[in-house]
Amino acid sequence: MKIVTELAELRVARRALDGSVGLVPTMGYLHAGHLSLVERAKRENDHVIATIYVNPTQFEPDADLDSYPRDLERDFQLLRDAGVAIVWTPNDQVMYPAGYQTWVEVTEITQLLEGAQRPGHFKGVTTIVTKLFNGAQPDRAYFGQKDAQQVAVISQMTRDLMLPIDIVICPLVREADGLAMSSRNAYLTPSQRQAAPILGHSLSAAIEQLENGERNAAALQQHILQILRSEPLTDPEYVSIAHPDTLLELETVADAALLSMAVRIGKTRLIDNMIWRANENDL
Ligand code: PAF
How far is the CA of 144 from the centre of ligand 1 (A)? Predict the structure, then answer.
């Protein structure tokens, strides 16, 4: 496995790869969710390139950029064992050198949900993902459904800019107790960690209500909030029942809904989501 930092080194290593390339962009501190993306990329491509870069421009000024968990050596070992061909770990000098002034922005679906709570976040994401695409030149790129709005925004950007890359959206991976895997779970104290699976449980409860015929979005939202508030350590930021494609809030659920939330547990902000479809075979 080649580990490269500079763009010139990446270009040389990329040119040496024959056949199709799958890209797995990450911010490191890898968990089983990331590795499921690598496994899928490995199955569907001749080679896999992974990137590890904690992108400063997608963090709000008072967010957790400095404390974001990092363990490069462990990440390298996991990626080596998973059969990755190249790991690109650019630094801020490579990505945002002095005089940097170009941004990629998706204007509408970025205003909702996470975008409403984290102004500027998606501009940072779309800019860095474009740069990662341009560096790695993949045929396919793999993202987790855990960041439901991120995958919608990146898919929109890829369509709008006619980027010749297939965006592959992979299922969210949960711990045995239902907590969605996230590098930020490392921030939780033991008691917060014990409380955290309530996010997934509240979503499952709402899915069950949908299965039983509930279609009123406000009622579903209230049900989720009630469950979240039964756990004193949780502080819900938002709970949304939206259309999975447009991300617009629904009054009445018709054939599909994206149930999503951001919840603070202590200082840690966790997100989670589930998609419900009346016809399970619909994409
Ligand atoms: O999902 C992430 O880890 C990041 O947002 C990404 C896509 C690697 C861009 O920095």
Answer: 10
